[in-house]
Amino acid sequence: MAPPNVTDGNDNGYRMVPSNEPEENYEKVQNIEETDKDVAKEKEKHLFEKAPLKEDSEPEAAVVVPPDGGWGWVIVVASFMCNMVVDGIIFSFGAFLPGIAESFDVSKASVTLVGSLMSGFYLISGPFASALANRYGFQLVAIVGSVLGTTAFAISYFATNVQFLCISYGVLGGIGFGLIYVPSVITVGFYFERWRALATGIAVCGSGIGTFLFAPLSKWMIEKMGWRTSLLFQGAIVLSCVLYGLAFKPLKPTKIKDIDEADGKELVMDPSKLPVATKVKMEEAMRRIRRGSTVSAYDHQTSISRMLGVNNNSDYPRVSDVYQTINIPSRKILETYIEKRLSVPSISEKDKPKSYDLKQNLLEGKNPIIIVPKRNRTTSQNEESEVNRPLYRDDIFFCASLKRLPQYTSRTSIAYNLAVTRLPTKNDVEEEIKHTCKLCPEAVKRTLATMLDYSLLKSPSFILLSVGGFLTMMGFYVPFMYLVDRATFHKMDLDTAVWLVSSIGIANTFGRVMCGVLSSFPSVNALLVTNVALTIGGVATIFSGISMTTEYQFFYAVVFGLSIACFASLRSIIVVDLLGLEKLTNAFGLLLLFQGVAAIIGAPLAGAFRDYTGGYEYSFYLSGSMLLSSAVICYPLNYLNKWEKKRNNKLQREKTVPV
């Protein structure tokens, strides 16, 4: 029996590898007396040969621990303001329809496409904005988005036709808003853990307040200055987001050893406590490596992953998985695995678990924990602690209370952060430290490979959820675009009608607060609440035209605002309940794409109905039907998901049964 691979924990700058000593020498270790530690240590050294560490040794593992306050509250205010500006402008675009249509002598349905393109690209650009934020940080991406959005509004001042506006205001402005939106949404969750639900709830309320304020403000500006100058004025407001973006300062990651010392607890676990699913995953990776895979250690790569040369983020080990134990068959396999897949953290001798016993593990045939010794600090190694990859967290898009997550409730705060943070690769860290200039760095490619991984479309639950989200967004923007126009068409005073959109905004704000309170109770079924809310909103939209009295129209606006608040607030909870936390980033990316395409289609289609019929009734019938349909098809989603989980568990058991 040959000795398994083991690594010395001494601070001597060397790594142990198995020697060619005969097996009988190895058997002598089993007879070493426990009390004679010095002799045992000396004899163990004779059984191995030393090999110097490479200069480019793997970096130390680090994790971001949210401070839960402090500067985080400044970020909440900055995020609130960004949401207020971006959503306020998008939802108030309906005020520009009459002026632009008159200037270019086109139908309002044609002008609607301009606002719809902005809404659509604002969502579609989400995965790409996330990828950039992962590599360059929230701060830079938000600032670039603010400048790009301002530029788009300035260019739109010189528009000569609707097509010009579609490109300048719709596409360019939408991309700029997407670059502002992503940092403002996820940076709050990056700073908060215990108070995440509260902080995120305050930040997203900016959307409703912005809708409330910008609807009358846009109407006033257009009356006083015309639509072109109003666009310039809005562009100046967008430029103010540069100041808010400056507040999105990055958090410095904490090294594992520092967490250990500060907390006074051992973080390394016994190999037997490693989850079965993780063991299976690591063993499958090893099998792929032995077969000589040069691209991936996993079989389910999509063409996007192959093209980018990286994996979905969920394929990479969590910090807790690798930091605690790794089942490695040999040194050669270890080096190959490290090179292709991950960066192993440095763990000092004191990090060995108290129960660890080399002799006993060898007797029982167990693989010991792989210990990478400390190294002398250099400037470049100290810089490793600055590597910050927010999109490598599984929970980065989770906006509700973490108490809903079993990963959080079953662990301490530190253990939770270790369990939701994925390791960067060696190449990723080197690009950061050496400031390598690449067109598409690995941190960007890995995020895109995660958010655009269409293998998730194999899940029936996700397909149904995606279709539901698509239909919801088809009807989502129609009332924002046409509610005021329909009211004035039916002789309501414009000064009164403009407050209909504001009513949607204020109701949306209250709805988000109520959803935040509801979501703090783990027993609340987020999917059912959303479906009921969308059903009510859809029915109300279908029957919104049965009376054009001022009272009834304001009643409808409030009901609609409350219903869409549930959809916006509970979406991340639904995804986690159905697919699990590790699929959240992937699902969020694909949902943004589907919803962005739907946003581009919905309002112009409703406008075409208006031009064809000469009235707004069928436009609102279409919108309400889309909302209602999205709820109806998702009512059986929980049952479908239970069936899917049973099927997947059965397949997993079949795969793990030895042949």
TrEMBL record:
One Pfam match: MFS_1
Keyword annotations: Membrane, Transmembrane, Transmembrane helix
Keyword Acyltransferase found: no
All residue ranges annotated as the Major facilitator superfamily (MFS) profile domain in the record: 71-642
Location in the cell: Membrane
Chain segments annotated as transmembrane: 73-97, 109-133, 140-159, 171-192, 197-215, 227-247, 462-484, 496-515, 527-548, 554-576, 588-606, 618-640
Stretch list, region Disordered: 1-26
Leader peptide range in chain numbering: none
This protein's name: Major facilitator superfamily (MFS) profile domain-containing protein
Source organism of this protein record: Brassicogethes aeneus (Rape pollen beetle)
